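This entry is listed as follows:

___
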Amino acid sequence: MKKGKKRGFRHWVWRLFLLGLAGFVIGLGVIVYANITAIWASRGRIFTDANALPAAQVGLVFGTTDRVNGRENLYFRYRIDAAEEVWKAGKLDTIIVSGDNRSRYYNEPEKMKQALIERGIPGDRIVCDYAGLRTLDSVVRAKEIFGADPVLFISQRFQNERAIYLAKAHGIGAYGFAAQDVERQAGMKTRIREVGARVKMWLDVHFLNTRPRHLGEKVELPE
């Protein structure tokens, strides 16, 4: 290979390397910023003591399945524990249970409602949102379908942080009550997924203008 061609080849390899490096740095910056901005948005808005919560009319429990691979899902149990604690502290009038209802055999809202009733919360104060397919869907529907504003989110801290960010972006007053988190391997997998979920959150708000998959008719909450 002639010297000129060698220099030209090395030049293009170097340019490709620099472009790849720039893309990596930008991508890493977006990931870090998206994850930190949810924490910033929720500062001072997430509580761990139910008695310290301001009184709210509506709480929203984010859906998850009650069992995973035949075993109890601790995310489910801890969210129900948290909702019971807030209710019995006298901080809520109504609870929305928002989740996936993909079939007659998979119905997160009904599972959550039944679990809350078993904890002594009146069934007529629990409203099911069957179209909470994503955190964004649940947050936006809370206001646009159920008229809840402000709203108290009840879930693990990481989801509450993301939900409050989304609520602020959509002009919804919000704060959160942190359910107990899950440790060990199951918790680690969720943490890894959460990194990507926050990037999607940021893109949904600032570039994609993502809306809930389903809206529909407004629903009156119990008075």
Notes: Residues 149 and 173 are 6 Å apart (CA to CA).
